[in-house]
Amino acid sequence: MVQALRPALCAVLVLAFGANAKTCLPNGIPEQNRLYVSNATDQPSPIRFVTYNWDSARVINHVAEILVSEVLGFHVLRDPGIFFWATDGILKLAGCHDMACAEPNANAPRADVLLDTWLSAGSTTLKQFQAKNGAVAPEDVGSMGYEGREALHVQGEVRRAAFADSGLPLEYYASYNLSFHEPQKYFDTVWSLPTTSLLNCTDTFYDQPLEFRVSSAMQNYLRWTGDSEGVIQQNGEYFAKCPSELPAFWIAPSCRQNVSRCIPVICQGQGYTEVFMHWATTYGIPMAISHRSTVDAFLNLVEHFRILFVWHEPDATLIHVQPTKVILPEYSPSAWAAGDFRTAPTATYIAKLVSQSLELSSPRVRKFIENMKIELSQVVELMAPNGISQHDPVTLLTPSDLQWSSACNWIKANGHIWQQWIPVTTDCTRGFGIVNADATPVALRSEAVGCEVCPAGRFSTVLSDEIGTTFVCRACEAGWHQSVAGQTSCLPCDPGSFTALTGQALCSPCERGSYGISSAATSCLPCSSGGNKHWTTSKEDEMDLRWIEVEGATSQGFCHCLPGWHLSPVSGDCEPCMDGSSCVGGGVLQLLPGYYSAEGSPGSVLRCFGDAARCPGGDPGTCAAGRDSSSPSCSLCLPGLQPNGPECVDCNGGDYVQLSFLALLILALTGGSHIVFALQHRSSGVLHFRLLALALCMNQLITCSQLFSVMEQVQGIVLEEPFVSFLEFFSFLSLEAVLGSVRSISCVTRVSAEVNLLIRTLLIPCFFALGPLMAQVVLRAILAVPKITLLKTFGFLSLLFYITLSSTFVEPFRCNLHPNGLRTLQTRHEVFCNFSGTHLNMCVISFVVCLLPVGFFALCSYVLLVMFPRRVNDADASFVRACSFLIMRFKPGCESFTIVFLFRNLIFVLSPMMPASGCLFVMGILLVTSIILVAYFQPWRSSVASQLDIVVQLMLLMILLLNSLTVQDVNVQLIMILCTLCASSLIFGILVATAYFLVQYVASKLRKRFAFFLCHQRGSSSGFVRLLKMELKNKGCSSFVDADNLTDLTQLFRFVSSDTQMLLLLGTPGVLKRKWCLGEIATAYLAKVEMTILSFPTFDLPDELFISNYQEIVPEVVELAVYGLGLSEVQMALRSLKQVKDIPVGDSFSRGRLNEIVSILTRDVETSSTPLTPKNHSGRIMTASTTSWTDYIILADPSNFDAIATAEVLGRFMVSNLPEKGLSPCVFTVEDDVSKDTSNIVLLLSEKCFHSEHIAHWLLQSRVPDPKLLPVMADTKFQFPNSTELRSASITCRVDHTAYAQVIKAILLEVAPPFICSESSEVDLLIRSRQICNRLYGDVRLLSTKMVMVGPAHTSERETDAEPVLESSAGPADRPSVTFSPVESSNLSLQLLNRGTSSSAQKQTVGEADAVSTAEVHLASETISQAF
């Protein structure tokens, strides 16, 4: 922008400054060809001159301006401001407001040249300004060539008159001494001067007090002259004593008594009042000193009165009065410096001042001003035509034409003088150097075309040749520098810095890790001679107590290791500081609390695992009190001491007492446990349930304590208070306190690590076995307790403390990783894990000892998986009691959870050998898996115990997750591997699930999971449904029955829509009023699943009225809306039943009709033998023609359709249940009779079964063979008959009431086991059938025996007839009838089962009874496929 405006600005300046331009020299450079210079803002500017208000300054400025403009060719401009004081000119050149120069003067541009500046010897104005403002202060480029003199003068006319009259030379000071001469007669008196032209002593001069009132000046005068009469002292201030009658004069002592003899002396301004009075007093000069009021008054006094006056030279104002200087004794610098002014004043140095910027903007002009020298006579010659100036000193003046003409004439006449001032193009000034056409510095003038400022990295030095002297720019040598352009010398690089090349502007500081001890260095010395890059140069900040890296180090003392490194005393070089140490700088290593290193190898840092307080940190080799500092990690105590927290203390008797008490407590607890087991064994193993629950809770508590101790072993977890104190408090439950008590042995001798391991793994377990052994000896002598109880106690203790016992054998493999890369044992911190020496011995011992927990695990697995099922089948109760410590905690069928928990605990113990991340991952997996298994199987004997176990493991998992947040040494790579495995498993699982469901979907389209969905109403057709499913299965068709296949009610309709090929609706009277059946029908209709109706005789299809009012008939149908089935869908499904295929079932049950239905459904026209007539033990039912082969017969009410179907189902189950007994039951039909060979009869109790003629006929016939007759509850609607109902049944059946009632009462003496198809699944029915078989071939009495027990019936005793029936089967006699619920019926059957299968009815322990039930469940599961 500036460059673009430069031409326009130049044009404006030409118009402004060239309109009235005058030319002096004929061949001078015209205005339009002159140049501008660039000012501070890089704008074109003329050379600005500023001048003072006296003639010599004005005329000399004209000379300089003419030569600069017409010869050098620069535009010049005279500043309008005209100054009287040198201070004003200095500020103008600097561009400042005041001497402080805090802000530049923006209102006025800075001037460039100030000539004829008077700098008196005592004035320090310029020097002080340069010192404070060196960057802008003007520069003194030398003397004007003449000196300025200010002195006392006398008019030429007066001097000549005195000399002519008396030969008195008034130009000499001695001529004024009144003791020898009378000089006053040649001067006017003080009264002859006009007072208006004078200032009184108390007046001011330009707002400043006259020297009469300057106390310091008057005090100095008094000091040197002793003229106390001429000075007044007031309040510590000193003033000149001016007489009241002459208030404008200070009278000298020589004429003070006679003022008429005084010679008037007129001053103008400050500076000489005190000096003149010094002269007057010292030399007897009769002075009366006063000050002029104005310049015009002064000139008038000098021109019209005979006086002495102060004037200076060169000046032409008073040249017409021919002033002559009064000569005084020669100037004495020392006297004037001390304040003694009795000698003549010195000449004043007159300087040429230029701005600092002129050297850069126009070096030729500066060189011209520097060369400009003019003699005093030439100055007087220049001023001669000017006459006397009539202007006031503070008035702003401009040069007159006369002054310019005088300067021009002088220039024309004295060319030989000013030609020497003009610099040649290669005549460079200081700070510049000769350059060629490319502005490159050169060394010879012949190659130069001009001058340029010397750039940084070079200095300006004098070059002398035949032409003269100039300056060249030389490059700074290596080791030297110059950062400022235009300098005359290079500076040596300070110590700590260097330059490797010549011509450098700046010295480079020595890099960190090097130093320089000498100046002018060309390179730095490295801190490390071996090339280690981990050295640096630093110094300590004493305020912040930290080390700061520095560049430019000046000595080797600055060399230290980098932060994070320390100076190794072994290698003498810097080595890295490991974790646990602090190396903030200076090469000094300090250990953090909880870390240790030996004095000889401070860099090998070990972490103090366990109690970190034993390593207080600080200097290497520091340990807590009593600790052996030579042992790794301060792990050992000094000889004779034992550990007590972080410190080691002296052994005392209390330690042995504590150890003894602990030993006795162990003996008491283990021995007491054995006594409890022995007494329990003597009581046939009966254990109170609440005592068992208490034992389970204690087991959980001890297990948690042991798992806590394992968690403590995980590396990287940081445990802090209060959790640490909590773990320490409960450590006694995990045997850690017992194992840790071995430390007290150190009071006797220092035990090696191998011996310590043997004590922990063998001696302490053996000591635990000592208590039971001692108790066994006592009990065997007193109660003859068998040895088997001792094995039971050992097993219990091993199982209880399995985690702690297992963790001891892995001690040599649980190592802590230290910052130095070494590993030490978690339990013996002084042993390094290096598989050599002590560690190798411990590994061998551990390998041998590990056979104990591993063998115990293998033995438990063998007992529970192999031996226990066999012994249970053999009814070995003693074995069950002996193994009760393994099985008594769990429900029957869940005994294997002992192995699961042992395996979990074993892996839990091994996991701390892994890195922290992997260990926590494995522990978490173990806990999550355990929680899932317990939640799913509910294995504990008590439901509360299972819930407690889940809560405990959830809390353990939460503690584990919280501890994982404190892990420090996280193995990110391992975590990422685990994350990848988990993510891969997740994606793989999702893909497998997706593929599975896709296959299922495709398969469901091609072939459904279930061929038939049996939609039925429970209680009315459950037996037929069960039998139909069995028949369809024989044909290879799978069927869905909710009692067998439905575990989640929300999935019911999914089975219909997705997994069913055909929905079979068993049309019983109330089936269409069940909301779930309607939901199944509606789902099948919407999913377009084929439907078929098996209609019973009383079933009718719904009419339109029924369908329209369905919501009023079945209000709960609205509940199907949550499954997406609205009323409209249900109604459409009901209407669709009219188009559904309908297969009549028949009025009564018929095996032939059942076969036809199955054949129609399966589209099997083959007339093979029916599944109801299998061969003996292949699961078939014998027909009436083969009843001679039957082991027992099944009786059911032929008029009850579902009862007959239930009998068929029971027969099938009984055939397949115990085929080794040769059972082949027969279901009686109306054509069959009870044979005299019949030995076993099963009677199905259904609703009003005793009102059946066929039942009455068969029961009365059964008295002849006298069989075992077992009633079975087959219907929830069955009611035990009272006497009234018995009589009604006899009448209905047309049989003898007495005989019939006696038989019924005898039959109902037996507790009827349940076999109810509507309330049982397939597995449940199988188990019930087994129970029925066991009862039938067990302790069921003969019918005759029970009839004897009942006694003969008397018809007159109607109220008592029912008593035996009610008491034996139904409860109290105050109830006329009892209807058994399914639960009550099941309880009755379980009571019979618990009485055992043998006639001896021996008692069984809880474990045995459960074992039998478990075996039955297992057997039922194995034979379920054989039931059909």
Describe the protein's architecture and organization.
The protein has 46 helices and 49 strands. It starts with a helix and ends in a 5-residue tail after the last helix. Mean pLDDT is 79; it is low at 1-20, 386-398, 1164-1188 and 1355-1428. Strands 3, 4, 5, 6, 7, 12, 13, 14, 15, 16 and 17 form an eleven-stranded mixed β-sheet that branches. Strands 42-41-43-44-45 form a five-stranded parallel β-sheet. A four-stranded parallel β-sheet has the order 47-46-48-49, with helices on one face. It has five domains: 2-147 and 348-423, D-Maltodextrin-Binding Protein, domain 2 (3-Layer(aba) Sandwich); 156-305, no CATH class; 653-810 and 850-970, no CATH class; 1008-1171, Toll/interleukin-1 receptor homology (TIR) domain (Rossmann fold), CATH 3.40.50; 1173-1397, no CATH class. By secondary structure, it is an alpha/beta fold. Residues 1353-1381 are annotated as: Disordered. Keywords: Membrane, Signal, Transmembrane, Transmembrane helix.
What keywords describe this structure?
1428 residues; elongated; eleven-stranded mixed β-sheet; alpha/beta; D-Maltodextrin-Binding Protein, domain 2
Q: What is the tally of beta strands?
A: 49
End-to-end C-alpha gap = 109 Å
- Average pLDDT: 79
Number of domains: 5
- Hey, roughly how much beta strand do the residues contain? 5-15%
Give the biggest beta sheet.
Answer: 11 strands, mixed
List low-confidence stretches: 1-20, 386-398, 1164-1188, 1355-1428
Radius of gyration: 66 Å
The secondary structure category is alpha/beta
Q: Which descriptor suits the 3D outline?
A: elongated
Total helix count? 46
Helix content: 40-55%
